Each structure stands twice: as structure tokens, then as C-alpha cells.
Amino acid sequence: MQRFAFELRKLRNEAGGMTYRVLAQRAGYGVTALSQAAAGEQLPTLPVVLAYVEACGGDLAEWEARWKQAVDEAASSSSEYEEGGEPPYRGLARFEPGDSGRFFGRDKLSADLLDLMRRQRFAAVFGPSGSGKSSLLRAGLIPALQHTEDADLRPAAIRILTPGQHPARTHARLLDPGNTKPGSPGADTFVIVDQFEEIFTLCHDPAERTSFLDLLLTARQPTSRLRVLIAVRADFYGRCAEHRDLADALRDANLLVGPMSPAELRAAIVKPAAAEGLTVERALTARLVGEVADAPGGLPLLSHVLLETWRCRRGKTMTLAGYQAVGGMEGAVAKTAEDIYRHFAEDQAAAARRLLLRLVAPGEGTPDTRRPADRKELEAQGRQESETDQVLEAFARARLLTLDGDTVDLAHEALLTAWPRLHGWIEQDRERLRVHRKLTEAARAWDELGCDAGALYRGTRLATAEETFTPERQDHLSALEHTFLTTSATARDQEERAAARTTRRLRTLTVTLSVLLALAVATSLIAWQQSRISDQRRQEADGARQVTLARQLAAESANLISANSDLASLLASQTARARPTPRDTEGRDAGSTPPPQRRIELSNDGRLMAFSPDGTALATAGSKDGTVRLWDTQTGRLRTKLTGLTRGVTSMAFSPDSTALATAGSKDGTVRLWDTQTGRLRTKLTGHTRGVTSMAFELTYESPILATSSKDGTVRLWETRTGRLRTKLTGQTDAVLSVAFSLYGNTLAVAGAEGGVKLWDVTAGRVRTSLPDNSAPVFSMVFGQDDNTLATAGTNEGIDLWDVDTGQRQMSITGLLDIKPSKVIGG
User: DSSP label at 591?
Assistant: First the structure.
């Protein structure tokens, strides 16, 4: 302080040695304040220093740095308390029953809470995060219960608990009123449930949550020897209404914790220091009261900044200068945490990030909350245990973390927002944290079920977890989580190999049956052809005999015309009957004559056409308008018009059962599903940000899946019965031009504008294999009947045939210079 004062006096002399009266006129502060700043008896405040320096023409940034250095040096050498002395403030840590001697400012609220417990057997305390609910229960209510003169309210025992992940399983014994201390017959057992919101944030089993609530609500029964008080964060008030009996119990049995009055705040600031023989500058008290009165939930920050200011006290006085030196109300927590973090080595810093994020439950519609964790869970896979222990010790020593047996927890949720570095980590990893929390719960459930294979991850959940925790990020997993994820992947691979073997056997059986069917059909055709030839030859022989007979009768009639005219006439009549007519031969080749073809006259240019799988309907779309027409192929008549589409329909596809038609355009990312019988719009599928390029239905009649591709580089799979998006396939860096389902529907081929085809496993939601880059866009694809072959066509004026299993090209068909390959394969 003396050195700093000397430098201020030197600056005034270098500015011409102006008098303090002139200096006061320039600085805007009184002569006394400026002269005391340069006297060296105490460290001036920062605003006074900056006004002094500016009046003398000094560098403000340089002098602000000098002032902070002087504050730090004064704080490190000015404490008169012996090493290890207990501070009068708790910082971020909550007050405990033993801290009632320094818990001030909540006398009225403690009395109101005691009166509420006297009237109700089940009650609740609501308040925002940081309003001091936990400290009120422990340092306010519990001492009041222990020293009450009301015999009816004197407890047999007091039990404090937090729900955790398995509240009913963990705390059922504590909710048995029979487990009371001896010597207190007839008295009630008081159960205080702190952080009640954990039944929503940590307990994910609705049945266990309901069971725990039912245990608590037994306190309402007249014969019960329990009295229950729950402390709930105010933003979870609405969640309490989800349980009917709980909502009914809290209708007139709750107390809201509001902000402290200015008088209560002054008591909370000054009285703990006075109990230790310290004084608090009036300026500091006024500053703190003014800031906390307008900061909901600011009590933890107030307690922490008081603790840090106490560490920077000057003698027995806590000063405003010390308060400013620790960063003020908002900066004290961040400064404390940053000072610890900056001293970590690289491995310790990485361990600190992993550890702290483990203690966070990301909110979904609610603010983030803290999440207690077991120390075993904090040990990362393949990491040294000493790193975690060193980080835990450093943060616990600064009262940023609390260690309760094997449980580690954040000292207060205020740390989640007050420390910018931690807040940034949470925002950056929010989606990963949600996946991680679900993985943690699933791994724990799998372990509790004796590693039951039915509890392993499968399908989309496994794919999401593998995508989130790549080999480079698996050091974020605990040993149990790593084992769970590895076992799930191994089981998935075994199931896929078994399914592949089954598929190959089915294919072999199908080929065998196809060959036998072909032989049977060929045999039937040969027999039919032989029968037909025999019938034809018999008809020809009969015709020849008729012709011969007719000629004989005609000759006899000619010979008898002069001798016996009546007999000649009779033979002539018989000759007419015996002669074969053209009608006798009309049916001989009827089977080989093709049926007449019906022609459909299109009312527009029919630029795009699609036949229904059952062959009864033809859909056409022209380039002149946005109308799609449905034609009846049996009668050739127009069945219906589909209107309301944007111009330029680029893709149409019939469902496998021919009851639905999907349409899309190049300028509109909307896919429309129409009823082909009524022409009514069933539903709209939205989500593509650019035009739809191709569509394909899965070949199943149960619940067909529709795949749509877009220029935005995504493929979406839709459930056509509900119109719900089933999944989105991403990872394509260019526009998707074409999609095609395999015959069995478990493989989807996706072609991009820059060439190359990816084969997706639809069930697992991942890429199965990629075909080599064709260096040319692929406009159309189709699978062979055995699903082993894929044909692709594009701008290279040829058709490529690929082996689906190996991803190798089987052959290329070239020379198609006069036709479009996309029309060949798509037809």
C-alpha cells in the first residue's frame, strides 16, 4: 500500500505538482478522498484511483493493473488469523445444523416453517435455485425442532435424505416410523427430503417414483408416526401436479421461500463476521445489499463472495476494495474456479472437464441441474486414478465440490452459470451429455440385471452411442459404460452374421425352388404345346376328311343329275353340310393371337409417368402445370386429378399395394401422399430444405417405408401409415439424386451428384458399404431379384452391375449412345 501510494504521489508531481484542490476539480472527487488515496494508510477503491490517474494524465489500463496487483499482495499478507482458522461464511456450501450460530436473516421464515409443520403432517417448501432452501431446513428448521417447547412437535428422530436415482429402493427403511430412537414413545419421526426435484431429474423409472411418493404420503394417515417435509425447486412446481395424491396433499400445505429483505440481508452479511470479532465496511454492506436484492437466487453467490472477501480482509476489516479484488458478486465464483483450473497440468485439466460434466444433468425444458455421482463412475476408462483424486481435492478444498462418503456433488447449482468456462463446456457438449446420461443409466440397469443380453443397446440407440463415443472419445466412459457399449456392439455383430447366414440359406432355398418351379412350368408348357399340336393335327385331319367326303358327294350328285334329279339334289344338300367353313378354322390359332391393345389419350404431355404395381392405374405429370392425372388402364378413362402441387413434378412412386401415390417437386421440399381411389390428400411429409430428387417404397405390404432424397444431401425414411419421420440418414456431402430399396427392404442404395453409391443398413441406421466413385452422377438404380446385384445408370452412357456384398463391379454395359440409361433402368 505504501509503494502504491508513493507511485500516486510521484504521478501528481510529474503532472506539474498541482494542488489537491485543483486535482479534486479535475477528478470529480473530494480533496479528502484523493489525499487519503496517496497517504498509504489504506488501499483506495478502484474508481478513486482511476479518477486520480486520469486527472494527472496517466494510463488508465496500466494503473488498473497496478491496483489489482496491490490488492493481491495485500490479501496474501494481511490475514491476522492463524492458519486453518474457520471462516464465518460457508461459501457455496450449504449451512448444516452445526452452523446455526452463524445462520442469520431467516428467523421469520424458520418460525413460519415450524408453524407449518405443527399444522400439517405433510408439507413442502418451494423456492428458486439459490434461495437458500437447503440451509433453511438444516440450520433453521432442525435446530428449531430440537429446541422447541411444544411437546407435540418434539421429534423422536430427524432424518434428512435426497431421493437419488432409486429413491424407493434406497430410502424405504428410513420411511419406516418404527425405526425410531429408544426413549421417545409416541413422538413422530420427521423426514426432511431435500432436493426433491431429483425424483424427476435422476429417477427415470415411473414405477419407482410412484412407489417413493406413496411411501412419503403415508404421513397423511392419522395413525402414521411420520411427518414429512419436502424442499422443491420452484421450476418443478408443475411436475408435482403429475401425481394426483401429491397435488392434493400440497393444496394448502406449502411455503414459498422469497427473497430476503434488506434488513435480513444486512444481518446475513454483518452478524457472522461480528461473531468472529470482524467488522464489515458500511460501503461494502450497502453494495452487497443493493446487488443481491435484485438478483433472484443470489444467496450462494453472496455467501461465496463474502468468503473470498474475508480471505482478502485488511486486518479485522472486510473492505469494499477486497470485494472488488475478488471480482465482485458475479466474478468471485468464476475467479475461484479459474484460479484452480489454471494451476492444473494438461492431463489434470482434461480430467477436470470430464469430472465436472459428469456432475451435470442437462435440462430438457428446464434449467440444468447438478447430478451427484459415485466416485467409481468418475474414473475414466484407461486414466490414472491419481489425476481424478487431485482434481477432486483441489475443487473440494475451494468448496466448489462436496464429498460425502463415496458421493461427489457440485456445491451449488450456481456454479453451472456463474463460471463461464463450465457453462461453455455444457453448451458445447449438451447433446453428448444427453446421450451420455442415457448410456450411464442403461449400463447401470444392465449391470443390476446380471448383464442380461436383453438390456443391451440395439438399433438406433447403439448407432447413436457409437457415433457419439468414437474411439478417440471413449476415455469419457467409465469402465462399466465401456464394457456395456462393447458388449452391445459384439452382440449386434453376432446377430448380423447370423442374419446373413440365414439370408444366404433362404437365398439358396429360393434359387432351388425357383429352378424346380421353372422345370415344372417348362414341363407343363411342353405338355400343353404337345396337346395343342395334337388337337391341331386332329382338326386338320377332320377337315381333310370332310373335304374328301364333300368332293365324293359332289361327284355322285353330278353323275345322278340326269338319271335321278331328286337323289342328286339330296346329295348336293349333304355336300353343303359336309364342306368346312372359315368359322370351323377360326379357333385353331386363337391362343396365339394377342389380345387387342387399348390406347390412352393423354390430356397433357405426360413428361413423367408411373404404373401402379397391380397394373390398374397409370399416373402422369406434365411440365405445363402442377397437375397429376390418374388413368384407368382397363377403360382408358381419366380416373381423377391430383391438384394443389407446385409446378415441376420431378418424382412419383406408387406404394406396393397400389393404394397410395407419393409425389414431389424440384422446388418444393414437401412430399405428398395421395389416395389412388379417391384422389384425396392423405398427408404431407415435410423436412427437406431443398427440392426432392427421388423416392422409393420399401417392398412390403404390412407398413411400407418411403425413402425420399433431396438436393440438401439428406435421405429421410417415413412411416407412411402415420406420416411420422422414422429416421434421417446424413453424411452425404453432395446432393442425393437417386434412392432404391432392395427386394427384402433391409438395404437402401443412395446415389450422390458427385458419383458413388452408399449402401445403408436401414435397420441399424449406418452405412453398410460404399461402391467406388464412378466419377459421374448416378440418376437411377435397381436391385436384382436376389438382392445380390445392383444396377446403376448415369451420365456415362452405360450401365454398371455391382456385387452388393463385396462392393465390386461385376460388369459394365456400354454403347448406349442413343438412349438415356436412366430410362432403361427406371422402366
Answer: G
Q: Pick the closest to residue 388 from 365, 368, 408 (CA basis).
A: 408
Say if strands 226-233 and 189-193 run parallel, antiparallel, or are unpaired: parallel
| Cell numbers that stand for 161 in this block | 435424505
Q: CA 357, CA 427: separation in Å to the nearest integer? A: 11
CA distance 518 to 798: 31
Cα–Cα dist 744/669, whole Å: 28
Q: How far is it, in rounded angstroms, from Cα 705 to Cα 11?
A: 81
Residue 2, C-alpha cell as written in the block: 505504501
Which position has the grid cell 420452484? Answer: 234
Q: What is the pLDDT of residues 410-425, one digit of tens each?
A: 877 777 887 888 888 8
pLDDT of 302 strictly over 70? yes
Tell me, what's the pLDDT at 167? 92
Q: Strands 799-803 and 809-813: what pairing?
A: antiparallel
pLDDT given for residue 668 in this prediction? 74
For CA atoms 732, 737, 743, 745, the dihedral sign is positive
DSSP label of 238: G
Contact 652, 661 (CB under 8 A): yes
Please report the domains of the chain, with CATH numbers, ordered by start residue.
2-77 (1.10.260.40), 106-256 (3.40.50.300), 651-826 (2.130.10.10)
What pLDDT does residue 588 have? Answer: 43
Answer yes or no: are the C-beta atoms of 250 and 234 closer than 8 Å. Answer: no
Mean pLDDT computed over 399-409: 78
CA distance 69 to 77: 13
Q: Using the predicted structure, report yes or no on whether residue 604 has a pLDDT greater than 50.
A: no
* pTM of model > 0.90: no
- Tell me the three cell numbers of residue 61: 489500463
> Please, what's the b/e burial string for 636-675 (b: 16 or more CB within 10 A of its CB; e: otherwise)?
eeebbebeebeebbbbbbbbbebbbbbbbbbebbbbbbbe
Measured between alpha carbons, how far is 325 from 48 in angstroms, rounded to an integer?
14
Task: Quickly list DSSP for 695-722.
Answer: EEE-S-SSS-EEEEEETTS-EEEEETTT
Q: How confident is the model at residue 18 (pLDDT cuts 50, 70, 90)?
A: confident
From residue 155, how far is each of 101, 142, 181, 183, 224 by CA, in Å? 21, 10, 10, 11, 14
Please name which of 767, 796, 760 lies closest in space to residue 779, comparing C-alpha atoms: 796
Tell me the pLDDT tens digit for each residue of 109-163: 999 999 999 999 999 999 887 788 999 999 999 999 988 888 788 898 899 999 9
- DSSP characters for 437-495? HHHHHHHHHHHHTTS-GGGS--HHHHHHHHHHS-GGGGGGS-HHHHHHHHHHHHHHHHH
List pLDDT tens digits, range 513-539.
888 888 888 888 888 888 888 887 787
Neighbours of 237 (CB within 10 A): 15
**Are 634 and 616 spatial neighbours (Cβ–Cβ below 8 Å)?**
yes
Q: Is the dihedral of CA 198, 200, 202, 206 positive or negative?
A: positive
Buried b (16+ CB within 10 A) or exposed e, 793-813: bbebebbbebebeeeeeeeee
Instruction: Dihedral sign for Cα 756, 762, 767, 771, please.
Output: negative
Task: Tell me the three cell numbers of residue 170.
Answer: 434406497
Q: Are strands 766-771 and 757-761 parallel, antiparallel or unpaired?
A: antiparallel
pLDDT at residue 783 tops 60: yes
pLDDT band at 701 (very low <50, low <70, confident <90, very high): low
Contact by Cβ (8 Å): 662, 653: yes
CA distance 42 to 35: 11
CB 681 within 8 A of CB 666: no
22 pLDDT higher than 70: yes
Identify the helix (H) or strand (E) that includes residue 253. none
Q: How far is CA 510 from the centre of its chain?
A: 42
Cell of 42: 489504506
